[in-house]
Amino acid sequence: MDGTLTDTFSGLGVDVHFVPTSCPVKEPAGVCGLDNSGNSCYLNAVLQCLCSTVPLVEYLLNQDTQVFDPSCRSKCRLGGVFVQLLKKMWMGGYSSCAPVEARSVLGSILPQFNNYSQQDAQELLLFLLNVLHDDLKKVTRRQMRSSTLQQRRKQGDKRSIAAAAWETTAVSQLFEGQMSFMTLCMHCDHQAHSSQTFTVLSLPIPTDTSKCTIEDCLSLFFQQTILTGGEQMLCSVCGLRRETTVFTCLDNPPEILTLHLKRWVEIPEQNSSYSLYAVVNHTGNLNMGHYTALCQITETQAQPLI
């Protein structure tokens, strides 16, 4: 039914106004709640944080980009519905909406989320970023196949550059960083080096204090570690498992740093290379609980798709 319905409780003199959820309510851009359906709080909390990630929003909603146009949405289902959700949250003027289609598509792609059970928000975030990254790669491949630049490739190095471009998306540019590891055999001093890209850093919590900061957790994560006992590594020179020292370094920090904390830590108010803009909170225990999100809303510079 359209319009505002008014009903007066007989004898109480109280007017009760029912506002249909289909009627848009003017809200600032990006300020839009997500309705829970069953135990979907873990999904809504993660979606709120992603929808508050301004560089990602600007890229996906920019009319010059038009990432997921109708011609590719059948092959990029999650990317397509995520853009539709962004448009509703940033352009729809609704106080809240229900991400029903996003949840349905997510469940069809990732069956482990196709139920009403509570799930781990950090695990979901990784899955969402991976699927969105894959969808964006499909768009990039399609665009490059139709590009005249690809047809002019003749040299191997150009093919390598083009192949690398296929693997790079807005998700990897924003969320991926790189760490390097050096292992030192404590018997023969042999060194081995390796590197690894990451999207989320799962930080250990110091056990010798009841209160710590993120800096304390980062220091503990990057401190040198000695592997002994059952954790000894196989030395390629000795041919045996030896006690090993592991050094971890951050070579290339991501533009957006995502941290996974196992419990509350203090966030100090001081100058940093990063500014906190979104947090997913969990209250409860391993078997049950509730997720909420706290997000800072910032105006975007994107010219949104109509």
TrEMBL record:
Keyword field: Hydrolase
Enzyme class: hydrolase
Residues of the USP domain: 32-306
EC numbers: 3.4.19.12
Reactions it catalyzes: Thiol-dependent hydrolysis of ester, thioester, amide, peptide and isopeptide bonds formed by the C-terminal Gly of ubiquitin (a 76-residue protein attached to proteins as an intracellular targeting signal)
GO CC term (a single one): nucleus
Pfam families given in the database record: UCH
Entry's Gene Ontology molecular function annotations: cysteine-type deubiquitinase activity
GO biological process assignments: protein deubiquitination
Key word Hydrolase present: yes
Protein name, UniProt field: ubiquitinyl hydrolase 1
Species, as recorded: Takifugu rubripes (Japanese pufferfish)
